[in-house]
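Build the 3D complex.
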Amino acid sequence: MSPAQERVPVGAADQTGGRVVLAQAEISRALRRIAHEILEGNKGTEGLVLMGIPTRGVPLAQRLAATLHDVEGVDIPHGTLDITMYRDDLRSQPVRAMERSQVPEGGVDGKVVVLVDDVLYSGRTVRAALDSLADLGRPRAVRLAVLVDRGHRELPIRADYVGKNLPTAQSERVSVRLTETDGTDEVVISGPSAGEAHR
Amino acid sequence: MKHLLSIADLSREEILEILDTAVSMHEVQHRDVKKLPTLRGRTIINFFFEDSTRTRSSFELAGKWLSADTINLTGKGTSVSKGESLRDTVKTIDAMGVDMMIIRHMASGAPAQIAQWTKCSIVNAGDGMHEHPSQALLDAYTMRQRLGDLEGRHVALVGDLTHSRVFRSNVLCLATLGAKVTLVAPATLMPAGIGDWAKADGIELSHDLDAVLPTVDAVMMLRVQRERMSGGFFPTAREYAVTYGLTKERLRLLPDHAVICHPGPMNRGLEISGDAADAAQSLVLDQVSAGVAVRMSILYHLLSGDQSGEGDAA
Amino acid sequence: MSTETRPTNTTPLLITGADLAGAGTGDLLVVDGRIAAVGADAADEAPEGAQRYHGEGLVALPGLVDLHTHLREPGREDSETIETGSRAAAAGGYTAVLAMANTNPVTDTAEAAERILDLGQRAGYVDVHPVGAVSKGLAGEELAELGLMARSRARVRVFSDDGKCVHDARLMRRALEYIRSFDGVISQHSQDPSLAGSTACCHEGELSGRLGLPGWPGVAEESIVARDVMLARHTGSRVHVAHVSTAGSVEVLRWAKAQGIAVTAEVTPHHLLLTTDLLSSYDPVYKVNPPLRPQEDVEALREALADGTIDIVATDHAPHVRQDKEHAFIDAAFGMLGLETALSVVSTVMVAEGRMTWADVARTMSTDPARIARLTDQGQGLTVGAPANLTLVDHDRKVVVDAANSQSLSRNNPWHGRELTGGIHLTMLRGRVTAREGLVWGATA
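Done.
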């Protein structure tokens, strides 16, 4: 597998006027590679639990679990980790609705939990996820898999598995769209826009 | 949304948001680590001028499980002759910089008046005969968990309506959620002006519990105080139990799917028989369990989020 | 325009071009504390050196007389004294007030009555006439010394347990029989305590049901009014119904008057305009006894005042210190201020709307109250020889009521922020100006 430095069609535009940096095929390949890296890092499937961070981390975790099943023939426990209550920016936003957390049978105690999210940016979401996970149990280890790392970390957090490194300007906006939630698979960067999502 | 003084303050969407969040909060109740960091650093005062172990401990747990600092204060009922006015009493606490006061008071309207005098958020935990919004929300939550969407459902409220704040909040909450409400009580236990009120709000009135029970999806029995006998409201406990109590015989009149609610504390044998209280259809214990989760949801919706008043979009 | 110096007793004063209580425009000459001339030729009789006062655009009324005021002294001087209450009365266009007996101690003896009379005279703004209690200590059990109070210097003629109802029928009958010999009248606070429970705090109806407030039904008032008019007929004595508040009471009064029964009645300014809907905010400034009623009752009261079924307007001025009102609604004190705004409310609701004329106002707020109380020095109208007790009203002036701008010691004012039409321009007590354009002067010897 070639590393995720493939050139994407430069200047390919989407409806919102942004630039497609990952198309469907690239996303699939990236996810497949991540799945293999997880297996390699963990030396197999023993103790693996995938926890997707809503919204789009959830279908990504499901796809990873499916791929791992295809490769190893084993059902990997996977679930959802809602982090709303643990966010550090609650006071500066209107009241947020919660998502449901779903912990797979067998829990997280003593497991190798792989957190799965679509974009890694400031690192605050992952910080909240680590706190949320700590209140559910005590994993043996926690790893982080993200589809896109766009830099600009505000906390000392790094991903273990990255689909694509995407240097961006803070004024740019990165949008991940997945078939399960948005009807199509693509990652788009749009130009400078006010009030971009803080991740 | 800054205060919760009356169910009338909430739109249908807001009620459903609170109930939906309560589902997640209910799961925290069953975890080992019953803690969420969400309201860390917020200060909540439970200011109870009227005693109540159940509601107060429910609110106290709700606050603590959300990591807020909660303190219980008992207030004396203030009267004109007793020195400090109500306004001075609450302004003193408000001046300490608390974020919220949860008020229970014997006087109808006291939380609304207090909200005019203070800067912090005010939650009405029961004011006189007026309202008990968190109770109505947990009643709706419990019914919804069992019956699903309450739109179009038929709910009967039975008992001492005149003196019941649970009735007043429930009637508003159920109406906002689209349920049809029938009130059943002797005429002496229906509030004055109920005819005009019922007509204005599309509520049915009945004095015949037996006729109403086969048509309902839920029946809520309200507490009847024995002291009301001396006020001339009804002759004897026996007569009340026979004419308006949910007796063992009346259980058979209920449709199979229908549920029984009671806000507690129950007078077994008066408004509700032991058989009914313990029946499979009874949601009484579910109501208690839901109380903390619903109150956590209320506190979350009032205290987290931007307080500058830009509305409460999800 | 108007004179700068305040006229004294001895300087003749000619008021020119005023509307003379609805009887047409004219002049009014005041000499030595009496009305010396009235009408178109009054100016001719003005002596040299008479001061002139421009009355153009103003309505001249005989000095207002309030049959129902609470002055709180003795006992609650923190909320009002006879002096501050008198100042408020003068500012409101009043030249005489009847001070209710529910002070502490109660005015149930000649000595207590004379003390109030003396304090009123010392303050010197209005004639303060004490009302005597019907029962000792307002306890509703034994008759107070009605005769001694009538014979005292205070010459008490109006008796009332106001604040409470004389609900024992036997006591009410005896009291009515007893006062007949000195032409007394009992002003009854009509409220059956067994129909209006001890915690009742508002009108019992749809709103009180929704708000969860214990109320009392209109019938608690009406049943006492009905009983008392029959007792008046039976004893041949005079009954006055204080602060009528329901349409049902009006019906009883209409019937009673048609029978020739000696019953009179009063209505407060607040019952002419404010309704029970105001209570949905639970603001205790609207808590009053009898309570504010629904619009239907307000309409019936207006009609009754206009057609004479209700004889007079009386303020039931009830001052309360702030902390007595800053409680939960059910715990707060009952009562509203009224002296300084009464005329403006009547002007706005009744005159501006064409329900009453200024002549009617003179009758309902001066002549008839004085007659019911058997006052000799007041309520004699704008007639030659009468004491110069006058009120000049600027009937067009728009006033936005400011609770802070008040002569009263208290601030429980339900009219704050409301725009009213008509204000007091000048008040004169026996030729001496007591108030002018909101300012109240000190008394002179």
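Chain C has twelve helices and 19 strands.
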